[in-house]
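Following up on my earlier thread - several people asked me to post the actual chain instead of describing it. Fair enough. Here it is, all 138 residues.
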Amino acid sequence: MKKILVLCTGNSCRSQMAEGYLRAFAKGKALIYSAGIETHGLNPIAVAVMAADGIDIANHTANHIEEYQDIDFDFIITVCDHAQANCPFFPGHAKRFHQGFSDPAKAKGSDAMVLASFVKTRDEIKAYCQTFIKENLD
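Reply from S.P.:
Thanks for posting it. Predicted structure:
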């Protein structure tokens, strides 16, 4: 079974969303992990916007990259530029992919504006994950 790691800065929003979608779209064909260079805890707005699209990430945990040093990943996906620049070396044959998404946790403005930022990032991540699974696992 293929192993996929999604890596972000804090493992609170973008990587968690990607983990949720990749699990849903892979339909058991891969083990999906997410981690951060740091851990910021699961963002409640990310949980809410994913639930609104039928993906439950409420029980995900924020994990640090060091927890996965001994796993031989097939794919490593970085979803922010900071993680791409700071991703540690993983021995093995993992193919690396990078797709930077804006960080909705840094959105400013009204509650509606912040929510719109999360929805926009969620929808971009969803499209990326659908394509990734189609091109790499189907």
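The chain has four helices and four strands. That should answer part of your original question.
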